[in-house]
Amino acid sequence: MFYRHGMTDKAPKSTETDPKDFRPEARAPRGFADKRASQIAAERRLITAVSKVYEDFGFEALQTSAFEYADALGKFLPDADRPNVGVFAVEDDADSEGKNGQWMALRYDHTAPLARFAAQNWDGLPKPFRRYAFGPVWRNEKPGPGRLREFMQCDADTVGTDRPEADAEIIALAVAGFKAAGLPAGSTVLKINNRKLLNGLLNSLGVVDAGQQMGVLRAIDKLDRLGLTGVELLLGGGRKDESGDFTKGANLNDAAIAAVLAFVAAGNAERSVVLDRLAAVLANSPEGMAGLDDLSRIGATLNGLGVGEADAIFDPSIVRGLEYYTGAVFEAELLLETRDEKGELVKFGSVGGGGRYDDLVARFTGEKVPATGFSFGVSRLAAALALTEAGKASPVRGPVVIIAFSDSDMGEYFKLASEIRAAGIPAEVYLGRSGMKAQMKYADRRLSPAVAMIGGDELANGTVTIKDLDLGREMAAEISDNKAWREGRPGQVTLPRQEAINHLKTIVKSL
Fold first, then answer.
1. In CATH, what number is assigned to the domain containing residue 495?
2. Which residue among 169, 250, 474, 480 has its CA within the 20 to 30 Å range from the CA of 117?
3. CA–CA separation, 413 vs 287, rounded Å?
4. Do 64 and 117 contact (CB within 8 A), yes or no?
5. Distance CA 427, CA 404 (A)
């Protein structure tokens, strides 16, 4: 029995097995996905659409390295010999002086690299600095349904201004991005909160212990799943679920629980109404009222930008997980109904988020540099759209396939391929060793619009035979007699070379 990777961590006991006979198991690493043309095309369409919106808003493109030094990533500062918690890390080579190399890690988002770039180049940057970025990010976390270790994001950030209007512009940009991506109206909503609100409320209630405050945040974060009753239990002594498992609560007193519940319940209304409700709850908190003023200015700017109530709402229950958010936070929820192959409802929830992070650049410089941004979850949204009728990925059409009849005429086939490509049409010469029937089947599987054939007669007469595969299938479906099909050759024409290429243009344009 041969040793196979993934079956055991131990080396095989027997040394008699010839290494040449080893066959590794073909499998993708957990949490990493292979993507074929249609999936790649779907993600590219989203990135192109969203990037265009970012550029229209005046954001410039920036590309940073996939790797950053681990100590620059912030969220996952190394506290062990190997910083592999949450990130994928490798140790760099020793430097020219022979000192041990530093640990490098694949970026887990596009924000931490931006903070490093801004700190490194701040003197030469226009301020505020407005940039967008797209590309893969990697997280060393337990994979699961809809949770990959490698995925695509497309971000936009403004660094160098503390104006709430900058937060509002980022929100408007996100709303416009979802519309540009082709999502129907009402299929997403941006939920907006401000960390100052809850921080101010808890401080005014005397809840200053960091652990207790984190317990409150965790409780509020479960509002959608548990409702107000479940949140109330988690704010108090704790909650036992249906399985009997007990979750320890934040142990707030009754007055504090009532205040937090009133705060959370202030949502589900027009933006101006939510502001009025929150003002009543936060009347005794200067920090909370400052956060409320930020929300008010965000609301006024959203109104000026034409962002309606259906697209962006104030929701006090939104709690962003990353610890570096300091003010406004926002999360994009997908409302579109999505069902899997079995017809079962699939809930994707968040497909993007962001907020204000005024302390991230300061990690490098010691000086506070205000910043705000939004991350568009490209891979997650593409996966969600693939489960909807409107968003199912269209198959990617293949090139025109030139049939290879004879080894001696391969040069002519490639010459024709070059002429077709010069006309702006993708083309390839069949390079297998199969016969005519298999070549036609190959073109069909590639979803080619047509095949081009130059046999002996065509070469002698300067013509090309074109078979329109889509039209041929349609016409063949209407012919029941094989003899009639062979004689009629549906969708097939023989034309002088240049006319044949013009005919291909017509076929491709009709797709």
1. 3.40.50.800
2. 169
3. 74
4. yes
5. 13
At 232, the pLDDT band (50, 70, 90 cuts) reads very high
Q: What is the pLDDT of residues 277-310, one digit of tens each?
A: 999 999 989 999 999 999 999 999 999 999 999 9
Contact 198, 316 (CB under 8 A): yes
Is 157 annotated to bind ligand?
yes
- Closest to 108 (Cα-Cα) out of 144, 72, 160, 162: 72
The model's pLDDT over 316-329, given as tens digits with 9 standing for 90+, comes to: 989 875 467 889 99
Res. 241 pLDDT band, cuts 50 70 90: confident
Question: CB count, 10 Å around CB of 334?
Answer: 22
Beta-strand ranges (E) seen in 391-439 are 400-402, 427-429
Q: Is 320 annotated as a binding residue?
A: yes
The Cα 287–Cα 327 span in angstroms is 11
Distance CA 314, CA 223 (A): 15
| 138 DSSP β-pair partners | 150
Average pLDDT for 370-398: 81
The verdict on whether residue 153 carries a ligand-binding annotation is yes
Cβ pair 26, 6 in contact under 8 A? no
**Residue keyed to tokens 């030139």:** 402
Six token digits for residue 395 = 């198959």
Residue 77, in any domain of the structure: no
Q: At what angle do helices 254-264 and 195-204 cross, to 10 degrees?
A: 160
Write out the H or E segment, with its range, that includes residue 312: strand 312-314
The verdict on residue 468 lying in a domain is: yes
In a domain, 231, yes or no: no
Q: Please work out, in degrees rounded to the nearest 5, the angle formed at the alpha carbon of residue 386 by the alpha carbons of 380 and 391.
A: 110
Give me the residue label for tokens 């006319």. 499
Q: Do 282 and 200 contact (CB within 8 A), yes or no?
A: yes
Q: Which of 163-172, 269-278, 381-390, 425-434 has the lowest mean pLDDT?
A: 381-390
Domain that holds residue 435: 400-509
Which is higher by pLDDT, 139 or 387?
A: 139
Residue 324 assigned to a binding site: yes
Q: What tokens appear for 376 in the block?
A: 């568009």
Distance CA(372)–CA(160), nearest Å, equals 9
pTM exceeds 0.85 = no
pLDDT tens-place string over residues 401-419: 999 999 999 999 999 999 9
Element (H, E) at 492: strand 492-496
Lowest mean pLDDT among 174-183, 472-481, 483-492: 472-481
CA angle 372, 63, 77 (to 5 degrees): 65
Domains held by the chain: number: 1
**Structure confidence by residue, pLDDT tens digits, 193-220:** 999 998 899 999 898 888 898 888 888 8
Q: Is residue 489 part of a domain?
A: yes
